[in-house]
Amino acid sequence: MSRLTKTERLGCREILKLMSKDDILSLFHTVTNKMIAAENIKAILSFTKNAEEFLKRKKVHRDLIFKYLAMQGVAMPSNSEKLELVKKTLELWSCGKKVGTGACQKRQMPTEVGFDPLLLGHQFCQWFFQLLNSQNPTLGQQPQDWGPQHFWPNAKLSLLYSFQILKQHLFLLQSVHWHQSKCAFVLCVAGTIHRGTIWLGIFEQIFGLIRSPLEANSWKIKFINLKIRGQDAVGGTEVAAPALTYTAKELQFLCS
């Protein structure tokens, strides 16, 4: 019988939700050896020995795993082999992290305890990009609560881009840099943009966050500076490594 951990079981369920009904039925017959008449996801998980076996099944296609990792905010090159994606997924599950859209919907704006800038930066980016990607209808997620409550009333967006932005573009976090001063926090991130498994370009984004004096240890967005470059602008069709071009001094200036 199944030896899946709770985290692995939740992750497998999310991947199964991305599969077609025909593929789920085929996988059900394979896993249960046609010993059970009524097809259901619970039976598939019950007869799955371990997570690696599940991920390596033929019906668990490479593109499904790639899409699942994207939903979890894990950036992978668009030309990644299935074995690479399986390994990354197993690493994600082994850390015991909560996965699945249900868990994401309950996540609130990050708070600080003793102010750890690295922790705050990663918490904010995980929260923001999962919230943003939930608005993407191609991922099949329930849209999370996106609205003005996350911004200061006079918040500003500065956008510089070299290709047309479409709703189905997907932002994936790659790296983080920050500068903090008193109650202001400037966070710089770089990442890749995809449509499905197709790499479209790279982005560099700066968030200006200010602590809310009326809400304990909460931060709201004061400004966003976003630079987007399509694959034509960065040269070629291979995934370019996202890079942070802002210096610590420039971030400090934005924070002042």
Per-chain topology:
Elements: H1 6-18, H2 21-32, H3 41-46, H4 51-55, H5 62-71, H6 82-94, H7 101-105, H8 117-133, E1 151-161, E2 170-181, E3 184-195, E4 198-211, E5 219-230, H9 231-234, H10 248-255
Parallel strand pairs: 1-5
Antiparallel strand pairs: 2-3, 3-4, 4-5
* Number of DSSP strand runs: 5
**How many discrete structural domains?**
2
CATH class of the largest domain: Alpha Beta
Number of helices, counting only DSSP H or I runs of 4 residues or more = 10
User: End-to-end span in angstroms?
Assistant: 59 Å
Shape: elongated
Quick check: average pLDDT?
75
Fraction of residues in β-strands: 15-25%
Q: Runs with pLDDT <50, length 5+? A: 97-113
Sheet/helix structural class: alpha+beta
Fraction of helical residues: 25-40%
The side-by-side strand order for the widest beta sheet comes to 1-5-4-3-2
H/E order of the elements? HHHHHHHHEEEEEHH
CATH structural fold name of the largest domain: Nuclear Transport Factor 2, Chain: A
Largest sheet: 5 strands, mixed
> How much is the radius of gyration in Å?
20 Å
CATH architecture of the largest domain, by name, is Roll
Describe what this molecule looks like in 3D.
This protein is 36% helix and 24% strand. The protein is an alpha+beta fold and 256 residues long. The chain folds into two domains: 6-99, no CATH class; 103-255, Nuclear Transport Factor 2, Chain: A. Strands 1-5-4-3-2 form a five-stranded mixed beta sheet. α5 (62-71) packs parallel to α6. The termini are far apart. Residues 97-113 have low confidence and may be disordered. It holds the Pfam family DUF4518.
